[in-house]
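As a warm-up, study this chain.
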Amino acid sequence: MAAILCEDASQSMYAQMLCGLCQRHDVLRVGAVFAAALVRAIRFLQLNWAQLAADIEAGELNPSVTDPSVREAVAVILRPDAELAEFIRTECSRGDWTGIVTRVWPKTKCLNVVVTGVMAQYNPTLQYYSGGLPIVSGMYASSECFFGLNLRPLCGPSEVSYTIMPNTAYFEFLPVGEAVDASNLVELARVEDGREYEVVVTTYAGLNRYRVGDILCVTGFHNAAPQFRFVRRQNVLLSIEADKTDEAELQRAVERASALLLRQHSRASVAEFTSRACTLHVPGHYVIYWELLTKSGDTVDGETLGRCCLEMEEALSAVYRQGRVTDGSIGPLEIRVVRPGTFEEVMDLAVSCGTSIGQYKLPRCVTLPCMVELLDSRVVSSHFSPALPHWTLAP
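Now compare it with the structure written out below.
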């Protein structure tokens, strides 16, 4: 509890990881609220395993952990263990992090983490780190209220639907595509199978008809309770002119480009991404920041990354492609590869500005000047789409 309440995110993570290593044979599941946080925790181990092993060998926390309550709580668990320290050094110094979760915590049965919506892009990374453990997305919740449960926790990540719990709040739904008006709101019992809605909540805490901003699709019913699949956030992310690219469309484009990257370079994958619309020059263009996960320090050639740019453009809307091909109002899409650890720095920046680390979600479009400046300062290579995407005028 002391580690959870610690205000310093780095000290909190260090203490939890250290205790998890000391009790590694007692761990049955590994998880976090969102997939991004779990990936961050594993990368934290990648960066700090040497110091963690040294502390375990000595049986004492290093001076960098200064919070008195954390030091006192960890002292109850931490004991000198040279054998465990050597095990950690052996496993983590190999450079191969495939299945690291089950290698370090051998009794782990599943990963307990939300992987729906934009978090779905972490599935390949989590599969890589866990060695193929089941990924359980057990619940759907937000800062506003608790929404529902996944009644089939062992289903595949792409099949996850949540059954709304009608006693946690008063739920209403605004059909996607209709005017934002109270008269268009649909009660929970009257939603239609297969239709998309924006969820609106009235909570016990005092929110009245609050638009959460989540778009859900009705996938069926459990008895009379509707079941929903999370589709996307409501807001448009990217726009240069008439084009409007939302979160789900950007996610699909990145997934398509990631598949191409995997085919061309089997030892590389997209670990994290975000975007922005760059209008410093005319015409403006989309900038996609990629942090790559490669094995054994491999690099990806510029030609392959250029093809990934074009693959993303092919996956974007007809309006975007028309702007690229016919109107010339949108410039070639650009992928900027940032150095490893950049998105951890982005998270640290967000937390320093007041964001809760437990609720943190990487913005899929960055607009804050300080975040843009940070990302641009970590760019190691830049690549543009080498050709125009396909577009024809519909007959």
